[in-house]
Amino acid sequence: MSTDRQLPPTVGTTEEYGASPFEQWAEWARVDDVVRITGEEGDRYLVTHPELVEEVVFGDGPFAKTEGIQQQFGRGLVAEHGEQWRAQRGAMQPAFIPDRIESYAETIGEIVADTVDTIDDGAVLDLRELFAEFTMEVMVETLFGGSGDDEAIRTAVDRLNEWFLQQNTGGETPESVVSERDRAMKQLVGMIDEMIAARRGGDGDDLLSMLLSVGPDSDANYTDGRIREEVIAMLFAAHETTALTLTYTLYLLSGAPEVADRLHEETQSVLDGRPPGPEHLDELSYTERVIDEALRLYPPLHALARRPMADVELDGYTIPEDGVMYLSQYVIHRDERWWDEPTAFRPERFAAVDDRPRFAFFPFGAGPRRCLGEDFARTEAKLAVAGLTQQFSFEQLTETFQLRIGGTALPDRPLELRAHGRE
Predict the structure, then answer these.
(1) Does domain 10-421 have CATH number 1.10.630.10?
(2) Which of 38, 113, 140, 269 could make a disulfide contact with 150, Cβ separation 3.0–4.6 Å?
(3) Residues marked as catalytic
(4) Domain ranges for the chain
(5) pLDDT tens-place string over residues 146-159
């Protein structure tokens, strides 16, 4: 790593992202572990070494979330920092303790079984559409107490994601996209307010009821407005990311028959024809490795964005105040310094303890701000993958795709598979 004290080397501009932004990032990262990308709206700094990620997330440097995150997520946990962040995280923590995750797993297993029943032998599946619907139903039923129109919420979230995608691809956002964003946000706010009204005064133990009971007089200051923004943040941070995790996992399995066969052996042995439930989670070890390998290759959370609040030194370089830093999971997860055959889909690489740096793999973030819902997301993904692959094999119909930079790492086209029922 460099020892010169200066600005990182300039490798290109944000306008050069083009059709393959992640491939461009990977190419630029070969220049150095910290590089500078210039743009009309300010410079970006790509950070692609695990030890530097650790230095940023655990160091003493003053960092904040970027304005883009705050603009999208308002006062949600994912966008807050300092004492307010600590208060909100503490208020939400009880919804994600092990006993609660186990109770959610019962409901998730039932939704998996219902989803399996909707798939016919020979059906062509749009994976992102399938799993967006599935994960939204899971979220509404478990975290929001069943009070919400999951299909209408999902439609609004999709429109907002299109706006966020435009924000990350450079150039001016079309007025039509801005108008769609405004309409979608208005609809989403209205639906969330109805959910809040439905849960107010009840004795539910779901997350929405918990936040209402905490209320505005607590350190977390959970007014209706803050709760609304918390829900919006979770719809992106939990719903969209898990839907993409499942999308990429099934897509990769459809192109790796040996992995799919081994996975089916496990699900057949563990589930024995039954719907998946909490009692099966500990036995689905290979299923977990498959999901981890999909998260390595296609992390929905493709980079952690941090903004220095003062000039900081990193790897001998100066990162100026208000420059935006991207700590890139996508690039680090595919770096041949840490991974043999980095583009190969090999779940067995997660079978043993390794000597990789701590943050060679960090799909759920890193440091104190690591995703609060990681165990929830892993539980949901394991049960869904196990339940689906027990009943079906999948034929890959979409042969290639590229990733786009939105709030998450999105495929540039529908990823379609054909489901074949197992006898």
Answers:
(1) yes
(2) 140
(3) 241, 364, 371
(4) 10-421
(5) 766 777 887 777 77
